[in-house]
Amino acid sequence: MKKMPKTMPETETEWKSRLSPEQYEVLRAKGTERPFTGKLLKNKDAGQYVCAGCGNVLFSSDTKFDS
Question: For each successive 10 residues of the chain (67 residues), what is the average pLDDT?
Fold first, then answer.
């Protein structure tokens, strides 16, 4: 996992340099990934899921919904 800097980007250029093109589209341009295509779709690994933009923990794998 990539370690996030302590400061948040201030410009869109800084955001683009920090995020992958897909992350930028979802986090900054209000896009979505195509259904059933995400690399974590069938992930069952234990751990914590964090925001790619700020590094904050979003949820733990033990609370992930298994549909």
Answer: 69 94 93 86 88 91 77
